[in-house]
Amino acid sequence: MLQYFHWYLPNDGGWWNNLADEAKALAAAGFTSLWLPPAYKGAGGGYDSGYGVYDHFDLGEFDQRGTVRTKYGTKDEYLRAIKAAQAAGLQVYADIVMNHKIGGDHEEEFEATPIDPDDRTKALGEPRTIRAWTHFTFPGRGDKYSTLKWHWWHFNAVDTNANEPDENVIYLIEGKRFQDDVDLDKGNADYLLGNNVDINSEDVRKELFYWGEWYVETTGVDGFRFDAAKHVRAGFFLDWLEHLRHYTGSELFALGEYWSYEQAALDHFIERTERKIRLYDTKLQDNLSQASKHGSDFDLSTIFDGTLVQADPEMAVTLVTSHDTQPLRTINAVVSSRGSHRWRTRSPCCGAAVTRWCSSATITAPSTATPVTTATSTTSSCRVTAG
Fold first, then answer.
1. Cα within 13 Å of Cα(112), Cβ side
2. Known catalytic residues?
3. pLDDT-wise least confident of 39-53, 133-147, 352-366
């Protein structure tokens, strides 16, 4: 699998056309599937990576947030790129972001309780009237594809209040609660950012299920990468996926980005999703990062310690890096890709201490996309000596 994008792509709208042009070369290089970035309009318009979701139904078709195209191109270019990739024999996986929306068109007033962002089980005061950008009317799209206009009651929490703009808190909306069955980071990991989608809302569930149908029919993608899986109730992903598999009659591929180094948390998600959604091996990625940073001080015989590959290989998707681990991004787990490193390990034949020298190298693809593959693909030119 190739992650066909990175965080620092230019915002020139040419990425979908690049894919259409490079699809055959990517297949010839040995890749069998592509993970594409979120294709819908973000709050940042043509500058948005797609993770700041504004309108799921706008794939670069409507004049909204100051642009028609997304950072990657227009809807027509996106659909053309998918067809070109599939014609070359590549599976195409869409990046699905369902836990938040950002960039509402109008402010609304409602009651909410301030919550400690570092301990979501702790209230920091009494309920109060707040103002936030929670009304989404999608003026460029109107009622095309969907008539639902989002309001504050479609969310359970926000992180802004125009009445107290300097407060660093999360506001839990009156009558709402954080979801159960999410990661326990900070007490409850339901909230991530922006306007947190309330999947307990019947309007929201119907809309997201309907949007999934529309999206698969429109794009013909072969599967999904679920963003921020630890921040959404695990059972919702299973319900959504099973609905679309039944709707399409296709065994759509599913992968979750559950960034945690706690094996028990991964085990819980895998159990709750009935082993139907694979997970990235985030601990292996961190081990690779540590190995690249510590060189000869890192014992390669421990590279799989604490990893999903070690605990449940059938459910693991290994990765070397992603847009979240690039320099200056949210996860400090860069894997060094240059230079010669020396690691100590154990000989598989007799357990003797040996030294393994490797000159690390990146996979060369016809573009600047990020490879997502097994750990063994990051090193070459290795030799082993005793001592």
1. 28
2. 227, 257
3. 352-366
Using DSSP bridges, classify how beta strands 2-3 and 370-371 pair: parallel, antiparallel or unpaired: antiparallel
CA distance 110 to 119: 23
Per-chain mean pLDDT for the chain: 88
Q: What whole-number distance in Å separates Cα of residue 179 and Cα of residue 285?
A: 28
Residue 192: Cβ-neighbour burial (10 angstroms; 0-12, 13-18, 19+): middle
Measured CA to CA, the distance from residue 337 to residue 261 in angstroms comes to 23
Measured over the CA atoms of residue 31, residue 258, residue 223 and residue 73, the dihedral's sign is negative
| pLDDT over threshold 70, residue 165 | yes
Tokens at 177, concatenated: 């609660």
Phi, psi of 194, deg, nearest 5 = 60, -145
pLDDT at 354: 31
Q: How far is CA 156 from CA 108, 128, 194, in A?
A: 14, 15, 11
Q: Are 193 and 102 in contact (CB under 8 A)?
A: yes
Using left for φ > 0, alpha for ψ between -120 and 50, and beta otherwise, residue 228 falls in left
Element (H, E) at 309: helix 308-311
Query: In which residue are the tokens 């007799």 written?
Result: 350
Q: What is the pLDDT of residue 296?
A: 86
Distances in Å between the Cα of 307 and the Cα atoms of 36, 179, 183, 322, 331 are 25, 27, 18, 17, 17
CA neighbours within 13 Å on the CB side: how many for 242? 10
281 and 260 in contact (C-beta within 8 Å)? no
Length of the chain: 387
| DSSP per-residue letters across 320-375 | S--GGGSTTSSS--PPP-SSEEEEEEE-TTT--EEEEEEEE-PPP-SSSPEE---G
Mean pLDDT for the stretch of residues 322-335: 79
Per DSSP, 299 falls in state B
371 forms beta bridges with 2
List of domains in the chain = 2-98+204-337+362-380 (3.20.20.80), 101-201 (2.40.30.140)
Strands 100-101 and 106-116: unpaired
Distance (Å, rounded) from C-alpha 32 to C-alpha 373? Answer: 11
CA angle 54, 5, 278 (to 5 degrees): 85
Among candidates 84, 91, 87, which has minimal Cα distance to 21? 84
